[in-house]
Amino acid sequence: MQYSFAERTKSMLASPLHFMRSLSTRESFISFAEELPAEELFPLSSLEAAAAAVISKSPAALQYGEPQGYLPLREWLCNNFKQMKHTEVVAGQILLTTGSQQAFDLLARVYVEPGDPVLVEHPTSPGFLQILKMQGAVIVPVEGNADGIHPEHLLQQMESIRPKLLLVSPNFTNPTGVLWSLERRKEVLEICRSRKVLIVEDNSYGDLHFGGISEKEFYSKYPSLFSLDEAGKGGQVLYIGSFSKTVVPALRTGWAAGSKAMIETMVMAKQLADWQSSHFNQCLLHYLLESSTFDILEHVQMLNREYEIRLKLMTELLKRPAWKGSRFEIPAGGMFLWVKLPEALDSVALLKCSLDKGAAFLPGTLCYTNGEGREYIRLNFTHPGRDELLLGMNLIGEAITEFTARS
Amino acid sequence: MQYSFAERTKSMLASPLHFMRSLSTRESFISFAEELPAEELFPLSSLEAAAAAVISKSPAALQYGEPQGYLPLREWLCNNFKQMKHTEVVAGQILLTTGSQQAFDLLARVYVEPGDPVLVEHPTSPGFLQILKMQGAVIVPVEGNADGIHPEHLLQQMESIRPKLLLVSPNFTNPTGVLWSLERRKEVLEICRSRKVLIVEDNSYGDLHFGGISEKEFYSKYPSLFSLDEAGKGGQVLYIGSFSKTVVPALRTGWAAGSKAMIETMVMAKQLADWQSSHFNQCLLHYLLESSTFDILEHVQMLNREYEIRLKLMTELLKRPAWKGSRFEIPAGGMFLWVKLPEALDSVALLKCSLDKGAAFLPGTLCYTNGEGREYIRLNFTHPGRDELLLGMNLIGEAITEFTARS
C-alpha cells in the first residue's frame, strides 16, 4: 500500500546520518565520522563479573523495573554529583534514559510545540538537531567564540522571538570542542533566568578532559550551569549526562537531571515511549560502579590519557602537506576536532572521494540547519587506534591532494 | 521557573498508570494490575552463561550497534517466522525496539498526525492508548465479540471517517483475552485492504497459549494478519512482537516487522529517539537463543503449562461467594482475565479499598477512552505465584464484600 506518513517525518527522511552509520560497519573502513569510544579500553573483566553477580543474585534484575530507572543507580549519581560536582541532587530529580539522545528527545516531546523557536549553539550536535526538526521546532542559532556563546548575540536573538529553550554543551561543545569560560556560563545563565528560558545542558563529554587534572578539580573550575543554578532547584536547567563515553555505550544508560516537576513529566513520557530502559543494564552498571575491582575515576583518567595521545597524534598528522591551509583549535577534552578545510574545499564533495578510499569524517553541514558548514569537517579521535589514525588521516589527505590538484 | 509544557503533554499528565506502577513495588503488596511474567521461571543459569560468553568473546558487543538492531538476532527472528509461523521475512523488514511499547510509539510518531482518526479494539491496551493520546489521534473504538472485532461495525466506523490505521491484537487481545477466529482475521484484513487502512497487529501475547498445542500448530490455526498479508509484502500490516513475556522483560527487546518502506522510516525515527536499543542485550539474547542449553520452544511450553494452572486457580477462586455475580470468559492464552464485577460495583472505587488491603487490579476504565469500563477489572494471572493468587484474590474478595454490604 501507499503510506501517508506524518508531515514531520519528511524532514527526517532527508537525514544522511543513517547512511554514515551503515557505511562505517564495513570491514577495514576507518571512520572519524561517529562518536565511538575506544572499545579496546572497555572494562571487560569487571563487566563480566558484574553480569554474573547481578544475574545470580536475584531474578528481580531481569524483571520489569521502574520507568524512572533503578533507584540505587540514581542514588549513585546523586552521590557523584555531590562528591565530584559540588551539587546536591536527590534521586527524584533524576530520570535514567536510553542514552543522552533519549533524554533530549523526551524533553523535546513534552516541551516543544511545532513552530516553537529553540536556540542552539552554532554549530551544534547533528543528533539533537534531528530531534528538534522532528518536533517541528524553529531552530535559531546563536554564535559563539572560544569562551562559549556570545551573550550579546543571545540577547539579540531573544529580542524578536520568545524562545522555548536554549540547548548548549558548555563542556566540549559538539562539534567545536569549545570549553566555556566560567564567566560566560554565569552570564548565559543570568540572561536565561531573567527571560525565563529553559536551558538544556548536555554534559555527555565533560568527563573526557585532558591535561591531567582530576574530575573534582575540573568541575570546580568549570561548574555546570545546572550546578550554578543550584542543581535545578530553580528549575532553570535540565542537565543531560551519559555512561556511554565513560563506561560502555551498549548498556545505553544516560540520564536527565532537573527540577522534580520537569523530571516527573519526563518520566511519564518515558513510560509512554518504551516503559523503561533496560533494568538489567542499570543493575549491572550499578554493581560495576560499586564493585571493588573497578574505579570509575581511575578508569576515566586512563581513557583521558590515551585520548589525549590520540588527539596529539591527529594534530601532528594535520601538519602534513596535504592538510596545508587547514585550521583548527586544539580542544581541552571531548571526542572531536573541528577542522576548517584548506581553502575552496567542499566537505561534502571531499567526503565522497574519501569514502571511496575507505575513510570517513562528518561533513560540517550536518551540524548546521541552514546549509552552512561546507568548509568544515568533524574528526573523531577517540575510536581509531593509533595505526588507524595514521592510515585514515593519510587516506583523507590523499583525497584532499586530488581535489587540490584538480582545482 | 514556571514551565509551559507542550499542549499534548496534558493528556499524559492525567494517566493513572504511573501511580499503579509505583504502588506495586511496595513490599508484600500483591498486584494483578500489571503484565509481569513469573520471575521464578526466568532461565537464569542460561542467561548467566550467555552474558559471560558474549562479554568475553568480543568488546564489540559493548560498543554502539546498528539502529535497526543486531543483524543475527533479526535473522533469528526471520528463521523463527519461517519455521513457526510459515512466513517469509527478510532481516531488512525487522526493526528491534525497546519492547513492543516502543515499536508502536515509533509507528505513531512517523505515521499519525494530530487529529488523525485511529481505530482501536474496544476495549484496548492502556499503554497503546496513551501513545495515541500523546500523538493527538482521535481514537475511534470498534466493537467486537468472542471471534474478534465486528466487520459490520468496522465498516460502519469507516463510513464517516478516513482512519489512519487500525490497531488490533488478535491473539489474546489486551485486556479481554479474545482469540480471533481465522474467518474474522481474513474479513478484517480484506476490509482494510480495500480501504487502504494500515493495520498494526500486536502479537505480544500470541506465544502464551494454553491447551498443550505446539507453537507451530497454534500459528497454523491462527495465522497472524501479517502472515495472511504475505509477511507485509503488500505493506498492509505492521506486526509487533516481544521477548519480554517469553524470555525476560529486562532485556527490553521487542520488534516491529513490516514492509521495507515502513521499517526504513521507523529506523530513522528509532535513531532519533535513542540511536538504538542495547546492543549488548541483543547480543546476549541471540547467544541464548542459539545456545544448546536453552530451547525457547520448551521454555515457553513450560511457561504455558504453569500459566494455565494459575489461570485455572484464579477462575476457581472467582467461584467463591464474594465474587458471586461476576462474569468472565476463560481465555485460551495471554496474561489476563477480564472480569465484569458483581452488579453495581464500580472498579475505581473498589480499587481504592482493595489497595488499602494490599492488592491491586487494573480498573477497566484505563482500557477505554471515554470513561466506560467502570464495571470491569483486568486481572493478571502470570506474575503472582499460587499462594499470592490465593491471598490476593481473597483480599479483593474482602473489598467486594464490604462494598456489597454497604450498598
From TrEMBL, chains A, B:
GO process annotations (BP): alpha-amino acid metabolic process
One MF term in the entry's GO annotations: transaminase activity
InterPro entries on file: Aminotransferase_I/II_large, Class-I_PLP-dep_aminotransf, PyrdxlP-dep_Trfase, PyrdxlP-dep_Trfase_major, PyrdxlP-dep_Trfase_small
SUPFAM superfamilies: PLP-dependent transferases
Pfam families: Aminotran_1_2
Domain Aminotransferase class I/classII large span(s) in chain numbering: 48-382
Protein name per the record: Aminotransferase class I/II-fold pyridoxal phosphate-dependent enzyme
Taxonomic lineage: Bacteria, Bacillati, Bacillota, Bacilli, Bacillales
